[in-house]
Automatic annotation (TrEMBL):
InterPro entries: Gfo/Idh/MocA-like_OxRdtase_N, GFO_IDH_MocA-like_dom, NAD(P)-bd_dom_sf
A Pfam family per the record: GFO_IDH_MocA_C3
Residue ranges of the TM segments: none
Domain Gfo/Idh/MocA-like oxidoreductase N-terminal: 2-115
Domain GFO/IDH/MocA-like oxidoreductase: 155-248
Protein name per its UniProtKB record: Gfo/Idh/MocA family oxidoreductase
Domain of life of the source: Bacteria
Length: 333
């Protein structure tokens, strides 16, 4: 069993903990929260062995194999680095790190601690439906780009309209719509098409100074991939990957719950796999496979593939922010 600790007690951590239990490969060894009452309540609800208000104390005392980091984006780097230095593997919510400098430092630390693994919790690219998209894309004789959309109205935007500045919309926390929702279709694009030759970003700024929505263009040699993302409005548009006469249709570039292939007459063949009991279950199963048997050939191959995706997504997100003049305080460090 993998002894897991958690950072954060919000809904995403709860979903992760439930996925850990379903996988039957982990035990929730420890919970970290800045607030003792919150941490204790979360630990009791999920039958964790202990809760802590001191992060380094948890890493030192809880005998962890891995820690899941779901704090505000700007805190990921420091918390991940401390875990690596304690030889604890890290599962970091996307986007894992704020910029190239942070990613470079993490990779250097990983070289100094070769037993430590780093996983970015990009759940959708571990799902059976992603595998269906990948398989179908490989079968297309011609690929002519894609239009990927993920826009969901955030209840936190109500706070912005009331004059507040919630963390998820502030540059101080390395946040905003690109980082929060745009990362999903960006991850999908990188996993399917690789690193673009150049990128452009056209963000719509809101009162916090961060981006509320935007349009990204990833330019490849023979085609473009456009990404529409946002947290200030809803979109119900499908995402599409263009072949010649065929089109792969995806209900949402963030959720991947429905996947189909339209032929040259527009007829749709449903390729969707059955709905998941928990959308985070496939990724925690994948992570466990690597943590429990890191030297197996397929596990090492998969781990290096996921790591490459994470590095490339980090680079593309940073390049997009530079192109769109979206700077974070973390960029100045």
């Amino acid at each position: 069993m993998i002894r897991m600790g958690t950072v954060g007690t919000n809904w995403i951590t709860q979903q992760l903990v439930e996925a850990l239990a379903l996988s039957k490969s982990y035990e929730l060894a420890a919970v970290y929260s800045r607030h003792a009452d919150t941490g204790a309540a979360f630990a009791a609800k999920n039958h964790a062995q202990a809760s802590y208000t001191d992060y380094e104390e948890m890493l030192t005392q809880a005998d962890l194999d891995a820690v899941y980091i779901a704090s505000p984006n700007s805190l990921h780097f420091e918390q991940a680095m401390v875990a690596i230095q304690h030889d604890v593997s890290i599962v970091v919510e996307k986007p894992a790190f704020s910029n190239r400098q942070e990613m470079t430092a993490i990779l250097a630390a990983l070289k100094q601690h070769p037993q430590v693994k780093f996983f970015e919790a990009a759940r959708h690219v571990h799902t059976p439906n992603f595998q269906q998209i990948e398989k179908t894309l490989t079968g297309l004789p011609t690929v002519q780009g894609a239009a990927l959309t993920f826009m969901k109205y955030s209840s936190r935007y109500d706070q912005v309209l009331d004059g507040e500045a919630p963390n998820v919309f502030t540059k101080e926390f390395s946040a905003g719509a690109l980082q929060d929702l745009g990362v999903y279709p960006i991850y999908l694009a990188i996993a399917l098409f690789g690193q673009p030759e150049n990128v452009s970003l056209f963000p719509t700024l809101i009162a916090t100074g961060g981006d509320g929505k935007g349009l990204a263009v990833l330019r490849y040699t023979d085609y473009d991939v456009t990404v529409a993302y946002g947290k200030t409005s809803n979109s119900y548009a499908s995402s599409e990957i263009y072949g010649l006469k065929e089109t792969i249709e995806i209900d949402s570039a963030g959720e991947l719950t429905k996947v189909g292939l339209r032929d040259d007459q527009g007829a749709l063949t449903d390729l969707s796999e059955p709905a998941l009991e928990n959308p985070m279950l496939p990724e925690v199963i994948d992570f466990a496979r690597v943590l429990l048997a890191p030297e197996e050939t397929q596990n090492e191959k998969d781990y290096q593939r996921w790591l490459k995706w994470s590095i490339t997504v980090n680079d593309v997100l940073y390049s997009l922010r530079v192109a769109g003049n979206l700077r974070f305080p973390a960029d100045e460090h």
